[in-house]
Amino acid sequence: MEVLRIEHLKKSFGPLAVLQDISLSVSQGEVVAIIGPSGSGKSTLLRCATMLETMDDGNLFYLDKQAVASENGQAVYASPAVLKECRAQFGLVFQNFNLFPHYSVLKNIIDAPISVQKRKKEEATAQAMDLLARMGLQDKANAYPYQLSGGQQQRVSIARALCLNPAILFFDEPTSALDPELTGEILKVIRDLAAEEMTMVIVTHEIDFARHVADRVVFIADGQIVEQGDAKALIDNPQNERTKAFLRRLQREEE
User: Fold this and answer.
1) Is this structure's pTM higher than 0.90?
2) 105 neighbors 137 (Cβ within 8 angstroms)
3) CB-based contacts of 2: which residues, under 8 Å, 6+ apart?
4) C-alpha separations of 123 from 88, 109, 118, 177 in Å
5) pLDDT digits (tens, 9 = 90+) for 80-89
6) Of all residues in the chain, what percent are helix, strand and coil, respectively (each to 5)?
7) In this structure, are residues 105 and 132 in contact, taking their beta carbons and an 8 Å threshold?
8) Suppose 60 and one of 67, 83, 136, 147 were both cysteines; which one would form an S-S bond, judging by CB atoms 3.0 to 4.6 Å apart?
């Protein structure tokens, strides 16, 4: 079953065409890693998929609902009611955590389930405490973000996204603001989610992680999908010259 489908997505900022005719679908239980050089459009793709940026043209579907339709070369958004249903299908984890600094850890997690999904406080709190336990943070429910390490803040933001019971989770470079030790913490959490068959789209520069955890890798350059395929096959044996050059350069940087 397709959880997400993007067709012919286009996005420009002024004269700069950031995304050019991107089509991508993600099936239930699939983990898709998006890789590519800086400025290639990876984060913009995620922001368009999660409706934080407005598409210029293209179609966007979540499960059986169409959020955006292409009409006469322009993106036309669905009614507020349909968009609300579509937004309920995904959770988003940012690279810089985006926690509310004046809310406790627990309030950060339960705020949207209560105010947006209209769930009972007791139910949301019970789920939040379960998620904090899974993240190894059960003793941090009453702490504030400034009292946590970067890795702990990112685990809270993952718990916050999971508390919405999304059909798909988006990660935008979830480890780029963390040092190597804390990076390992977050990659383990994502690895565990993949083992539970959580549907995920992960923009990442952690190529070894993508190779081992993703089912499929999508390589984007200059706003276009240059190559995509089985994660191990693509990373170990890329077919496109641009993909080869990108992976070679990354390898040199790591050495």
Assistant:
1) yes
2) yes
3) 25, 26, 27, 28, 61, 63
4) 17, 12, 11, 32
5) 999 999 999 9
6) 40, 30, 30
7) yes
8) 67
